[in-house]
Write a structure and sequence with these properties.
- The complex is a heterodimer of chains A (110) and B (116).
- Chain A contains no helices and nine strands.
- Chain A has 110 residues and is mostly beta strands.
- A five-stranded mixed beta sheet of chain A has the order 1-9-8-3-4, with no helix packed on it. In chain A, strands 2-7-6-5 form a four-stranded antiparallel beta sheet, with no helix packed on it.
- In chain A, strand 6 and strand 7 form a beta hairpin.
- Chain A is globular and about 40 Å long.
- Chain B has no helices and eleven strands.
- Chain B has strands at residues 4-7, 10-13, 19-25, 32-38, 45-51, 57-58, 67-73, 76-81, 90-97, 105-107, 111-115.
- In chain B, strand 7 (67-73) and strand 8 (76-81) form a beta hairpin.
- The chains are: A mainly beta (110), B mainly beta (116).
- The A-B interface holds A 32, 34, 36, 38, 41-46, 49, 51, 87, 91, 93-95, 97-103 and B 4, 6, 32, 34, 36, 43-46, 49, 91, 93, 95, 97, 100-102, 104-110, 112.
Chain lengths: 110, 116
Amino acid sequence: DAKTTQPNSMESNEEEPVHLPCNHSTISGTDYIHWYRQLPSQGPEYVIHGLTSNVNNRMASLAIAEDRKSSTLILHRATLRDAAVYYCILSPGAGTALIFGKGTTLSVSS
Amino acid sequence: GAVVSQHPSRVICKSGTSVKIECRSLDFQATTMFWYRQFPKQSLMLMATSNEGSKATYEQGVEKDKFLINHASLTLSTLTVTSAHPEDSSFYICSARRGQGNEKLFFGSGTQLSVL
């Protein structure tokens, strides 16, 4: 499975933007980039996913590098509820499971 | 939006007993569901892929006779932990994908299993 590399932890202040990086230098042409987040004692929650173009939704934005070897999840205005573990995952194909790495633990301070 | 319901959310059992965890897709049909296990302060580990109407596919190192998976309908998959022991205590999470493409996964809320 293609792997991703994320920083172990990041810190942010409330109301400020957060940029969570992810490196995936071995990504293949058909791999989708998925982002999920997990709060303590809960199942993961979908955040966003994309293939080549940047994506926006109500939760976040996904910026994908032109060579697709890296991507950045952007939370435009962090809130305390955004404190979670964020996982960047490559999805190789339809119907396949997602393989989780260690993710980035985001802390948000008021 | 699509919802995956998982029950129970928490179960405590005695060593040697069996525990069944249910995972339901509430508003879509899921031909494939996935089961994960998560130990404290660790990431999710894929245990098996549950296929409706056929045998589950287990990841390497996961005992299929211990973790029985049944996917009898398009909206229900169950995981039974047989003869549970304290080392099976963990957070178990199911997930499902609504379509056949590379769409997002919906996750259940998880089941915390504690074996005494």
